[in-house]
């Protein structure tokens, strides 16, 4: 079995836990977004986890290789993570064909026993290739690109028993369900009391450094909510719309009247600045 001691994702997360800050795990859908994210990491001297959905790997097969090149040539700690991989065969294909650092093996659309069984099998296979494993304990409500299989299933909050069961399945990163949702909360962000910060804190005390904690479902988060989640123990902060909405809005407003090259360059600038802002919020700026 390959050693995980030099695994880039785990090195990034272990440093964040030791330093009491959070690291953005940012979704990219194309080369322009990837470029803006990496530029932000270098500008802020911040660690970064680049995330790709399995659907993106199929749509743009060369993007993972571009991301891997960005990782290997970066002057700050960057890693490549595949988010919400739900298909056994595709996960096994990724293991043997793509230079990734970590994979979320998302079996949360199965019942608890089968989720654990499949997660344990996949964790063993990933570790044999030196790839770190993330899994979802309980079930996070909602759906977005890449995780449609869970969209109509009831949310299940993570229990202490879930935590121990998934750690026993030999995962490296735990994504708990604490009232967070995949998808949108609305312009005001999560409702009062929707996120169970005390549960997140309890999970942090329970894992006691045995695994890292990932926070999913950050769309529409105000800055203070993100900071509180970090204080409560989350170190891997999955972000999608939280960063990319400024990119989307830039294209909605300017696509019709701006030359393509300028539209792309300006869009990368908009996304870079937004990413830098959230790196500041999460406390990772200057930590590389």
Automatic annotation (TrEMBL):
<feature type="active site" description="Proton donor">
    <location>
        <position position="83"/>
    </location>
</feature>
<feature type="binding site">
    <location>
        <position position="84"/>
    </location>
    <ligand>
        <name>Zn(2+) 1</name>
    </ligand>
</feature>
<feature type="binding site">
    <location>
        <position position="106"/>
    </location>
    <ligand>
        <name>Zn(2+) 2</name>
    </ligand>
</feature>
<keyword id="KW-0324">Glycolysis</keyword>
<dbReference type="InterPro" id="IPR000771">
    <property type="entry name" value="FBA_II"/>
</dbReference>
<comment type="function">
    <text>Catalyzes the aldol condensation of dihydroxyacetone phosphate (DHAP or glycerone-phosphate) with glyceraldehyde 3-phosphate (G3P) to form fructose 1,6-bisphosphate (FBP) in gluconeogenesis and the reverse reaction in glycolysis.</text>
</comment>
<feature type="binding site">
    <location>
        <position position="182"/>
    </location>
    <ligand>
        <name>Zn(2+) 1</name>
    </ligand>
</feature>
<dbReference type="GO" id="GO:0004332">
    <property type="term" value="F:fructose-bisphosphate aldolase activity"/>
</dbReference>
<dbReference type="Pfam" id="PF01116">
    <property type="entry name" value="F_bP_aldolase"/>
</dbReference>
<feature type="binding site">
    <location>
        <position position="136"/>
    </location>
    <ligand>
        <name>Zn(2+) 2</name>
    </ligand>
</feature>
<dbReference type="GO" id="GO:0008270">
    <property type="term" value="F:zinc ion binding"/>
</dbReference>
<keyword id="KW-0862">Zinc</keyword>
<feature type="binding site">
    <location>
        <position position="216"/>
    </location>
    <ligand>
        <name>Zn(2+) 1</name>
    </ligand>
</feature>
<comment type="similarity">
    <text>Belongs to the class II fructose-bisphosphate aldolase family.</text>
</comment>
<dbReference type="InterPro" id="IPR050246">
    <property type="entry name" value="Class_II_FBP_aldolase"/>
</dbReference>
<dbReference type="InterPro" id="IPR013785">
    <property type="entry name" value="Aldolase_TIM"/>
</dbReference>
<comment type="pathway">
    <text>Carbohydrate degradation; glycolysis; D-glyceraldehyde 3-phosphate and glycerone phosphate from D-glucose: step 4/4.</text>
</comment>
<protein>
    <recommendedName>
        <fullName>Fructose-bisphosphate aldolase</fullName>
        <ecNumber>4.1.2.13</ecNumber>
    </recommendedName>
</protein>
<keyword id="KW-0479">Metal-binding</keyword>
<keyword id="KW-0456">Lyase</keyword>
<dbReference type="GO" id="GO:0006096">
    <property type="term" value="P:glycolytic process"/>
</dbReference>
């Amino acid at each position: 079995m390959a050693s995980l001691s030099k695994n880039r994702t785990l090195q990034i997360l272990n440093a964040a836990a030791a330093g009491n800050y959070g690291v953005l795990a940012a979704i990219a859908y194309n080369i322009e977004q990837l470029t803006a994210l990496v530029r932000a990491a270098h500008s802020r001297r911040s660690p970064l986890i680049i995330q790709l959905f399995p659907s993106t790997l199929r749509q743009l097969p060369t993007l993972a290789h571009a991301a891997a090149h960005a990782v290997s040539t970066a002057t700050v700690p960057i890693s490549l993570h595949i988010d919400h991989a739900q298909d056994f065969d595709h996960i096994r294909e990724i293991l043997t064909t793509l230079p990734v650092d970590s994979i979320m093996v998302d079996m949360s659309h199965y019942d608890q026993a089968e989720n654990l069984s499949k997660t344990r099998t996949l964790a063993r296979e990933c570790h044999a290739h030196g790839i770190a494993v993330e899994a979802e304990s309980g079930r996070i409500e909602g759906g977005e690109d890449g995780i449609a299989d869970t969209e109509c299933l009831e949310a299940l909050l993570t229990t202490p028993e879930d935590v121990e069961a998934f750690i026993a399945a030999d995962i490296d990163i735990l994504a708990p369900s604490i009232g967070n949702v995949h998808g949108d909360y609305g312009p005001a962000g999560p409702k009062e009391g929707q996120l169970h910060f005390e549960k997140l804190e309890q999970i942090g005390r329970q894992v006691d450094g045995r695994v890292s904690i990932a926070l999913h479902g950050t769309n529409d988060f105000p800055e203070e909510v993100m900071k509180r989640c970090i204080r409560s123990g989350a170190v891997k902060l999955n972000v999608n719309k939280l960063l990319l909405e400024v990119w989307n809005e830039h294209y909605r407003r300017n696509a019709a009247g701006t030359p393509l090259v300028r539209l792309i360059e300006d869009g990368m600038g908009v996304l870079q600045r937004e990413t830098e802002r959230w790196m500041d919020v999460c406390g990772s700026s200057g930590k590389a």
